UniProtKB/TrEMBL annotation:
Source organism: Isoptericola halotolerans
Transmembrane segments: 18-36, 56-74, 94-113, 125-146, 158-180, 186-207
Keywords: Membrane, Transmembrane, Transmembrane helix
Cross-referenced Pfam families: DUF2306
InterPro entries (UniProt xref): DUF2306_membrane
Name listed for the protein in its UniProt record: Membrane protein
């Protein structure tokens, strides 16, 4: 039963729409970046030679990440859930495989490609950790769904989506550094790691806020 306090604490529909719009804007960042990366495959340069010679993992990663980013944002829409019965379940049937392929292809790219010095070392470790964590979270979300534990399912899906959207937040955490004349190599893993860390914190805040509303 939903209490009066829970109803008054629940986010308004306009606020929910604003949040979904914000997620779609954030999703546009990796989508545009991926599109540019795929477009660059037509011409071999020293920067993209590793992708041209072995394009399969990056093509899979970009394609599945686009699907995951957009569908994931729309899964938060209360409008879609109310107006289209079954939307959440049908979209989820696509979302989970897309997320798993996005994470797996990210791990594949990390293992297969030779990265420049700024992307090596600590950033490789972080990428492995993020990719593995996302796969585990998706697996836990599926297990929770099989057990009809919809609260845990939503929490794990939220965590996985937050990690996937790190690419969007990283524009904010790394963007200011691009104005510097010389960018030390250490700023790359710090900037990217901070983007993922911010999303993890935001996801936990959202999950705990849901718990308070239900309570």
């Amino acid at each position: 039963m939903t209490t009066t306090a829970a109803r008054t604490t629940a986010p308004s529909l306009p606020l929910n729409r604003l949040a979904v719009a914000g997620l779609l804007v954030l999703a546009a960042v990796p989508i545009l970046g991926g599109a540019m990366r795929l477009g660059d495959l037509s011409v071999v340069t020293p920067q993209n030679a590793r992708f041209v010679t072995d394009p399969v993992p990056i093509v899979i990663h970009v394609a599945t990440s686009v699907v995951y980013a957009v569908l994931g944002a729309l899964q938060f829409s209360r409008d879609l859930r109310r107006r289209h019965v079954g939307w959440h379940r049908r979209a989820g049937a696509v979302l989970v495989p897309a997320g798993a392929l996005s994470a797996a292809s990210g791990l594949w790219m990390t293992a297969a490609y030779e990265f420049p010095p700024a992307d090596a070392g600590a950033l490789v470790v972080i990428r492995y950790a993020v990719g593995a964590a996302m796969l585990v979270q998706l697996a836990l979300a599926v297990r929770a769904l099989a057990r009809h534990d919809y609260v845990a399912h939503g929490a794990w899906m939220t965590r996985a989506y937050a990690l996937a959207m790190g690419a969007g937040t990283q524009v904010l955490t790394q963007g200011p550094l691009l104005a510097l004349d010389e960018i030390p190599d250490w700023t790359r893993p710090v900037g990217m790691g901070l983007g993922w860390a911010i999303n993890v914190v935001v996801a936990e805040v959202v999950i705990r806020r849901r718990a308070r509303v239900r309570g």
